[in-house]
Design a protein that fits this description.
Layout (H helix, E strand, L loop, with lengths): L1 H62 L8 E3 L4 E2 L3 E7 L5 E6 L2 E7 L5 E8 L3 E10 L12 E5 L6 E5 L4 E4 L3 E8 L4 E4 L2 E5 L4 E7 L3 E10 L5 E10 L2
Parallel strand pairs: 2-8, 10-16
Antiparallel strand pairs: 1-3, 3-6, 4-5, 4-7, 7-8, 9-11, 11-14, 12-13, 12-15, 13-14, 15-16
């Protein structure tokens, strides 16, 4: 019984090989007939047609290029007391970057081969200034708008009001004294070089140790734009 099954499988395999041989022979005969009827020039033209079709497809693929990536603006500060600044950034090498201030174009520049760029002498408006950039290629491609970089132009010194002491010169009988007052929100305060704690309302305070006799106490308030207001008081410690 096993031998019968095996011989049957062999016959099936031989039939499949025979069918494939017949089909291959038929295709070969058809090819020769086409050569005889249309001649060799037909085959040459057909080959050229296939080559041109392939070349056209490759050309179309090459023409599909991706737009450049959006530039990245670099601002190392969020506020300044200077009316002009430089804005640096990073982008793809050799593209052109257009800079916008408050959504208005203010200039274009070529990116270096290292992928960096710098817009110098940019004039600021009083208050907040928002900057964006777009990268452009020679073939007309353009990137998405970059993330916004903002800077505030503020050339006014911060307010500084002393609550304690409330006079330019006072005399006390204790060595420990608490200096307090108010200034702008987000400003920093130094009292004789030591940091005074400033709360969300601009109130500050710091306890200091006095030496016997006269003590010059300097209070400096500085805002985010680095504008400063200074006051000096004399506190006499009389034991």
């Amino acid at each position: 019984m096993a031998e019968f099954k095996r011989s049957r499988l062999v016959r099936n395999a031989e039939e499949q090989i025979t069918k494939k041989t017949v089909v291959l022979g038929f295709l070969t005969v058809i090819s020769f007939v086409l050569i005889i009827i249309f001649g060799l020039p037909f085959l040459v033209k057909f080959s050229i047609f296939l080559g041109e079709t392939k070349s056209s497809k490759e050309k179309n693929v090459k023409e599909v290029t991706l737009p450049p990536l959006a530039p990245r603006l670099v601002l190392l500060f969020e506020a300044t007391n200077s009316g002009t600044i430089s804005i640096k950034g990073l982008a793809e090498a050799s593209v052109t970057v257009e800079l916008l201030k408050n959504e208005v174009s203010i200039g274009k520049i070529q990116v270096t081969s290292d992928g960096d760029f710098s817009f110098d002498g940019i004039e600021l408006n009083k208050g907040n200034n928002s900057f964006n950039a777009i990268a452009m290629t020679e073939d007309g491609g353009s990137s998405e708008v970059s993330k916004t970089a903002s800077v505030t132009y503020d050339d006014q010194p911060p307010e500084l009001i002393l609550v304690n002491p409330n006079a330019d010169s006072i005399t006390v009988d204790k060595a420990e004294y608490e200096v307090s007052g108010t200034t702008e929100k987000e400003a920093s305060v130094l009292i004789n070089g030591h940091v005074g704690m400033v709360d969300d309302n601009g109130k500050f305070k710091l306890k200091i140790q006095l030496s016997s006799g006269k003590n010059d106490v300097e209070i400096v308030a500085q805002d985010l734009a680095k504008n400063q207001t200074k006051k000096t008081v004399v506190i006499t410690y009389d034991m």
